[in-house]
Amino acid sequence: MIVSKDPNEVREQILSWKSQKLSVGFAPTMGFLHEGHANLFVRSSSENSKTVVSIFVNPAQFNDPEDYAKYPVNTEGDLEICKKSKVDLVFLPEKDTMYPGGIPEVELKIPHLMKNLDAITRPGHFEGVLLVLSRLFHSIPADRSYFGKKDYQQYLIVKDFVKALGFPMEIIGVDTVRSPEGLALSSRNARLTDSEKEEALLLSRALRLGESQIRGGEKDPQEVLNVMKDVLDSSSKITTDYLEILNADTLEELHILKGEVLLAVAAFLGQVRLIDNITVRVS
Question: Predicted confidence band at 195 (pLDDT cuts at 50, 70, 90)?
Fold first, then answer.
C-alpha cells in the first residue's frame, strides 16, 4: 500500500495506472475510520482495479471551531484499516498542502439542494465540502468516487457538483452501515458514552417507525413526523436539530407522500451531533 502526502506524486501514480487501462476508485474521508468506511473501500475494490483513499480533516467544512478541534484522529489505526481493506494508495495531505495561504474566500454551491437539512443548520458546511473535493478531484482523477448515504444530502450535492463542473467521474452512493442494534456508524460515535449510545438508538427507531407508518398506508407527512417526533422527545438527553420528510431526489418538501421519500434526522446528544436517514418507496 502506497502512503503519500504529496498531491503531485499521488496524481502521477493514478495517471500511471490509468495509462495501463486500470480503473481507479476513490473514497474521500476525514479519518477515524470504521466499518462504514471499510465498506466503501471494499465496494470500490470490487468495482475497480485500484482503490485510493484520502484522509484529511477538512477545516473548511466546520462551522464550529470547537467541533473541528475535537474531531477524533487515529492515523495509525486508519492505515491499518486501509491495509486490511486492500486499499492501494492512501493520500494524507497536510492542511498547508490543501490550502496554501489559507482557506480561500470562495463559495461553491448547488442552490436547489442546499435549502434545508444540514445546509441550514450548518451554514458553510457544504461549501467547505465542495471546496476540498474540488481540490481532491484534481489530485485524484478517479473513475468512480464513493460516498456513504448516511450523509445523504452530501451525496446528492456532490453528484450534481461533479456533473455541473464536468469532472469525468461517477459518484456512487453506498448504503449506511449500522451496528447490530441499528445505530448508524459514525466517527462521532466515539465521543458518546455507553448510555448516550443507547439513547442514540432512538434516532434509527424513529426513522423505522416512520417507515412503518408509511408502509402501513399513511400519506400525510405531518402525521408521520408527529410519530417520529414523539420517539425523539421520549428522551430528555436528545435535542432535535431537524426532522424532515422530503423528496429523496430533489429534497423538496412533500405535502403528500409519493415516489422515493427521504426521512432524515439530526440531533444532539450532549455536544455530539448525529445524523441518520432512510429512504422509502411509496407507490
Answer: very high
* pLDDT tens digits along 231-272: 999 999 999 999 999 999 999 999 999 999 999 999 999 999
Q: Establish whether 215 is an annotated binding residue.
A: no
CB 250 within 8 A of CB 110: no
- Domain range list for the chain: 2-174, 187-282
Instruction: For domain 2-174, give the CATH number.
Output: 3.40.50.620
Catalytic residue among 37, 125, 138, 255: 37
Contact between 182 and 208 (Cβ < 8 Å)? yes
Q: Does the annotation mark 255 as catalytic? A: no
Residue 186 annotated as binding site: yes
One-character DSSP codes across 230-276 = HHHHT-TTEEEEEEEEEETTT--B-SS--EEEEEEEEEEETTEEEEE
**Is residue 109 marked as binding?**
no
Closest alpha carbon to 206 in 179, 229, 188: 229
Neighbours of 101 (CB within 10 A): 6
Per-residue model confidence as pLDDT tens digits over 74-105 = 999 999 999 999 999 999 999 999 999 999 99
Q: What is the dihedral of CA 140, 143, 146, 149, to 10 degrees?
A: 130
Instruction: Name the CATH superfamily housing domain 187-282.
Output: Pantoate-beta-alanine ligase, C-terminal domain (3.30.1300.10)
- Predicted confidence at residue 63, as pLDDT, reads 86
